[in-house]
Amino acid sequence: MTRVRTARTPDGRRLEVSTVVAAPPADAWDAIVDTTQWPEWSPIVHGVDSTDRRIRTGTTGRIRLPGVWVPFRITACTARRWTWRVTGIPAAAHRVDDLGENRCRIAFELPLHQAGSAPISLRSLENLEALLEADGSPVR
User: Fold this and answer.
1) Helix (H) or strand (E) holding 96
2) 106 close to 21: Cβ distance less than 8 angstroms
């Protein structure tokens, strides 16, 4: 089940784009914090150079978007939620919620001024779901 709604988040009111997947939350978390996996599920990330393979608070680097490399910095990475700034601007937070029974919700919390990127987030979630559910094993 995929949905788009406005929600209150630790960073204020955001547009939340989420989907429920049949995968353990730890596997979903691994997929979204492993920078080598970002090009596998994000339709606009074509490369990543990062100080850490698995992000943590303070990780910096750059992502290759169509035609350009842009810098990023992870501003917080805690309990299955991380936030970042891309080119110095707050970008989507990424979150994994444990729903029990090997199910989880993956959510992207978009700042309202980035609501236009909701279709990209929806495609990213579809790609993550396909990767996580393909054979029941974690993305590595």
Assistant:
1) strand 93-100
2) yes
**131 vs 78, 87, 120, 127, 139, CA distance in Å?**
23, 28, 16, 6, 7
- As given in the structure block, the two tokens for residue 116 are 């236009």
- Cβ atoms within 10 A of the Cβ of 130, count? 12
| Domain coordinates in residue numbering, the chain | 2-132
77-102 tens-digit pLDDT:
998 999 999 999 999 999 999 999 99
pTM for this predicted structure:
0.91
The sign one gets for the Cα dihedral 121, 124, 125, 126 is positive
- The domain made up of 2-132 has a fold known as Alpha-D-Glucose-1,6-Bisphosphate; Chain A, domain 4 (3.30.530)
Residue 138 has pLDDT above 90, yes or no: no
